[in-house]
Amino acid sequence: MLDRLTTGLEFQTQALLLRAERQRMLAGNIANADTPGYQARDFDFASALRNATSAAQQAEGQGQRASPTELAQSTARFALQAQTSLDSNGVDMDRERAAFADNSLRYEATLRFINGSLRTIQDAMKSHNAG
């Protein structure tokens, strides 16, 4: 019974951890916008989430899990440059700001979903105890 409750939240938990890692990576890109030769990085969120959920299922009995950083690094890539710069910096601030804002909204939505799911479970347990 407990497995069914936690399995539903496992996907959202992995998504939240990967969103946090992506936010860290995007913040690093923005922080290095003036660093000569720096190339903006990002990772394929969908692939990393697929890897995270399949790795979680495989590691369930073994107690080992890949960290969000390891999962992000496995699908990491350099972001495509919209235009070249004289100092070879590959950070497009418009793209990075948009990606940062989008990821922030998705992070918050995932948090709200987890919070709502936990509240529903808690209400179900309260009503079972009351009846």
Keywords:
131 residues, mainly alpha, two-stranded antiparallel ribbon, elongated
Give a description of the structure.
This protein has helices spanning 2-31, 45-58, 68-74, 93-130; strands at 41-43, 76-78. It is 68% helix and 5% strand. The mean pLDDT is 86. Strands 1-2 form a two-stranded antiparallel sheet. It has 131 residues and is mainly α.
Please identify the structural class as seen in this structure. Answer: mainly alpha
Low-pLDDT segments: none
The biggest beta sheet reads: 2 strands, antiparallel
Instruction: Please count the beta strands (DSSP E, at least 2 residues each).
Output: 2
- Number of DSSP helical runs: 4
- Indicate the mean pLDDT: 86
Strand order of the largest sheet: 1-2
Quaternary: single chain
Beta percentage is under 5%
Helix content: 55-70%
What's the Cα radius of gyration?
Answer: 19 Å
Global shape: elongated
Secondary structure topology:
Elements: H1 2-31, E1 41-43, H2 45-58, H3 68-74, E2 76-78, H4 93-130
Antiparallel strand pairs: 1-2
